[in-house]
Every structure is written in structure tokens, then in C-alpha cells.
Amino acid sequence: MDIHLFDQLLKGRIVPGMRILDAGCGEGRNLVYFLQEDYDVFAVDRSEQAIRKVRELALELNNELPADQFRVESVEKLSFANGTFDVVISCAVLHFAEDERHFQRMVSEMWRVLKPGGLFFARLASTIGMENQVRPLGGNRFELPDGSERYLVDAGALHRMAEKLHGQFVDPIKTVQVEGQRSMTVWCMKKPHILFFDPIQDILEGTTEEEPGSDGSIMDITERRTT
Known about the structure:
Elements: H1 3-10, E1 19-23, H2 32-36, E2 40-45, H3 48-61, E3 70-72, E4 85-91, H4 100-112, E5 114-126, E6 135-138, E7 141-143, E8 149-151, H5 155-165, E9 168-169, E10 174-178, E11 182-190, H6 198-203, H7 218-225
Parallel strand pairs: 1-2, 1-4, 2-3, 4-5
Antiparallel strand pairs: 5-11, 6-7, 7-8, 9-11, 10-11
């Protein structure tokens, strides 16, 4: 398990009985503990092979969970209803965004399926502490010292996104630099119990033209994204 996710367990923010979504789960390295304990585990990944591995892992550790809880789908288009999960986990996923709009769509979808009062945990690559070691390519994409290309954020971008979502930081932003090759940042927020609609409109701005028959209202956008 990611050590920073384990830290949330130690702090009592993730407890048995919670419904958890691992969005972009890979082969389930962060799910072993949750599958062994009394958690209602769901996971999505674009890779059929990854989901097959997670289903096998679930059968091995907890054969009572239906296979349908592990789905082949993209993070930016989740099939779950609003407010389904107590915890949403996003580990090493968001820096694979194609551009800012893609990044916002992924965060928006994960936030949508999170319950009010729920915990959002993300770990993603950033420019923090490496501003002079990454080469900008445009559109918030950068070339890292190891030659890979990623969508990178800075602390300001994470705070602005949190403000749009009215997310409440449960920990300050924490960043670990990996031998001058990349910086990995932990972004951890709680969803407020009071629902706000303006941030959703900002994040989904321009998407109504893709929805025939939409009247452009926030309630219309929200209803369409949950059906």
C-alpha cells in the first residue's frame, strides 16, 4: 500500500465498513488490505488485464464481493451514481491527463461519486521542488529528467481546484522528490456536507454542446452525468 494512504488509515480517516473506490487501480496494489478487512471495495481501470487481475485478487482475499464491483472504464466517465463512496483513491493517475480539460474531468468525476463528508486521496506527479528541472511542453505538460512526459500541477493549481470544489484540506500538500527525477505530491481533501453547484459548472464548462437537448443548466448537466 502507498505509505501516504496508509497514513490516512493510521489517522482514523478510513475505517472498516466504508465503501471505497480505487479510480485507476492498476493491478490492485493499494487494495490488498481493504479486501482483507471489512471494506466494500470497488475499482476501475481502463486496462482489461488490470481489472482481471484485481478480480482474481478479490476472489483470493474476499470471495463475497461481486465481480461487477471491478469495472473496465475510464476515470473521466465513471458509471457510478452521485455520492456513492466514502473514500475515493487516485494513486499515480492524474499526471496521465492529456491536458487541463482532461485533468478537470477526471477530478470532477471522482468528486461527483464521493459522498458529502467523504475523503478524496490523490497522489500525483507535480512540478513542486523541480521547477527548474522539468521542461515545459505547453498545456501543463512537461518533460521530466527521466525523459517521460507528464501533465504536472503546482501547489497553486491544487489549491485553485480545491477552491472550485469547496474541498477542505485534511492535510497540507506534501511532496516527495525522487532523486531529482520526479516529484510526487499528496493531495487530500474532504468533501463538504453542503453541496455547491457553481464549481461543477466551471469544471464542465463547454460540455453541454456535447449533450444534445441540454438546456445548459447546472441541474440538467448534473442529471445527465448521473444517468
